[in-house]
Each structure stands twice: as C-alpha cells, then as structure tokens.
Amino acid sequence: MKREISVNINQTLLVCIILFILTIVPLGCMDRSDELDSIVFMAGYKPQANLPFIASYVAQEKGFFTVQNLNVEILHSSSGENIQLLMSGDVDITTADATTLLKRISEPGLPIKAFVLFGQDGQQAFITMADAEIQSPKDWEGLTFGYKFTVPPDYLAILKANQVDRSKINEVRVGFDPRILTEGKVDILSVFKSNEPDTINKFGFKVDIWDPSDYDIPSLGLTYIATEKTIQNNPEILRRFLKATMKAIEFIQNNPEEALDIVMKYAPDEDRDHQKYMMMTELEDGRSPLTTANGFGYMTDGQWRQLYSQLLEFGSLPNAFDYRDAFVNEFITSLYEGNQLVWP
C-alpha cells in the first residue's frame, strides 16, 4: 500500500512542476526564435508598393523569412539616410536605384554592391500632355523640360538617339510636384513612371509617356544592396534573405490582390488603386527575356556595362571605376534551377 501511495504522489508532483514551468516561462520563449538569424532591412523610402518593398512585406507576413531561419526587422528611410545607415552597420540590406548605386561607387567610392536586380527597365520616364500632340522627341525643340535635381542621363541619351538639338530646349529644375506640367509651366517632365503618371491621371489629365527603353537606351531600376563586408562575412544570410523575397515575388505575381492587402497593412493611409498601379508597373518592368529564361531578379554583366558606359559618356560619374565592382550575381543564380526557384 505504501508503494502505491508513493507512486501517486510522485506523479502528482511531476504534473505540478510542469504546470509551474508553463506559468513562469513566456510562450514566446518556447519557440525557436532564439535560433533565427537577425537582419535589418531598410526600404529606401516611405511604406508603399515599390516592388523590393512589397517583397519584404510579403516575405514577412507569409512566413517566408521564418522558413529561411531569419528574423527580419523592416525599416523605412524618411530622408534618404538608408545608405548612410548601411555603411555604419545599423542596416544590413537596403534598396538603391542602379544609377544611384553606380554614382555612389564613383564618388565617394562606397564599397557597396547590388545582389539582385528588380528593375530590368529603369524607374525614370518623361511625360508630356496628351493634348500637346508631340509626335517625337525631335518635337521637344523649342519647349521647356523640367527635371528634379540634375539633368537625367536618360534624357540626354534620348536627345542623342533622336538627333535633337539640346540648345533649343529650355531646361529648368522643378523639384517633385508633377502639377507643374498640368499648369503649363513646363512641356516635358521627368518622372518616376510607376508613380507620377498615375498621379496626374488622377488629377483628370491624360499624358503621353516617353520611356528610354523605347529607344533601346540602357536603364536599370531598383536593386537590393549590401556592403562588401556583409557580402564577404555573411553570404549565407544574404542568400536566404534573397530566397525568401524571391518566393514573395512568386506570391505577388500569383496573388496580386492579397499582396496589395499586405501593402495596405504597412501603408494604411495610401490610396489602394494608386498602390496597385505602382506594383503592376514595377512587376512589368521586372520582367524581360532574361528573367523568363533565368528567373526573376537575374542580371548580367552586359546590362551593368552598358549602363555604366552611358553614365560615363554623359558625365554622370565623377570618377571611372571597374563597373564589375557594382554587382555580385552569385546569390541570385544560386536560387534557381533554370527559371524555377528552388524552395525552401
């Protein structure tokens, strides 16, 4: 009888110990989060539907980062501080336009590289009012061109390709308000094509879009970038981050409305229709024969060489350098078999 009582007491004690542990240990400590590699990603602007931004949102919300054993903190740049924070080590990955990346390497010589290319075509285009009935860039002669900060090399390349006399165009710096076109203060306006044409359409005006790619002018769009130090010291973490975001790209293409739901969670004050325009425009610019054959995000030496040469020709790079220092292709190529993403 005493033996039976002892067994019952021990069993009761064990149950009590287990219940006690469950009450004092937070449930969050029972998962594997302490085994995840932490990484900080900063989008280069406010929350919105730029494709590299959405890829991080979707990878976070759909658990793709967790599948890759990553704990990713997503931040947003408020005043262009993202590359500075990348260099200080406070951020591990950020976004940059390909032209901006090349300029930062040229001067002040930052040791940074792109490891995926979202924009097979560049972000920039030029617009005119549809009722202006401008037939070709040659008709820009005698008109006023508005640019944001500096005269874009894409614009100069279009002039050269169409034998336009630049001296016959009045070029003015206008900043970021596209209404300067609708108010007739300029005739041609440099714009971000995934954003500003739709903004003007919502004002009730129709515009014609002049895309550099229509004239076989080399231009590339947004990338993910990291420092050479991070690439050398943490290549596996970068590869897993990239795999999760490329999985997110697959999801975005197959589930655009749900992807927009996720965007609106991060950017609740933005107009959904406008965000959709932005997303669909950047998805289209992210597709090319290269990505069809090799997978989304693919890039080649030739693409970077052509862009570098154009920027050098039009004086957009203060100092020459080896353009191959601007990108590393091994991460994106390691993710695909043919054009199919290997998951997980």
Structural commentary:
This protein is of the alpha/beta class. It folds into 2 domains: 211 residues, Periplasmic binding protein-like II (D-Maltodextrin-Binding Protein, domain 2), CATH 3.40.190.10; 92 residues, D-Maltodextrin-Binding Protein, domain 2, CATH 3.40.190.10. 43% of the residues lie in helices and 17% in strands. The protein has 15 helices and 12 strands. α2 packs across α10 and α10 crosses α11. The N terminus is likely disordered.
Helix content: 40-55%
Based on the coordinates given, report the CATH architecture of the largest domain: 3-Layer(aba) Sandwich
**Superfamily (CATH H level) name of the largest domain:** Periplasmic binding protein-like II
Helix-strand pattern: HEHHEHEHEEEHEHEHEEHHHHHHHEE
What is the CATH C level class of the largest domain, in words? Alpha Beta
Count of folded domains: 2
Strand order of the largest sheet: 2-1-3-10-4
The main sheet comes to: 5 strands, mixed
Q: Radius of gyration, rounded?
A: 25 Å
Which regions contain 5 or more consecutive residues with pLDDT less than 50?
1-9, 12-33
The name CATH uses for the topology of the largest domain is D-Maltodextrin-Binding Protein, domain 2
Q: What is the percentage of strand-forming residues?
A: 15-25%
- Averaging pLDDT over every residue, what do you get? 92
Overall structural class, as computed from helix and strand content, comes to alpha/beta
SS elements, strand count? 12
Distance between the termini: 57 Å
Q: What is the number of helical segments per DSSP (H or I, 4+ residues)? A: 15
Shape: globular
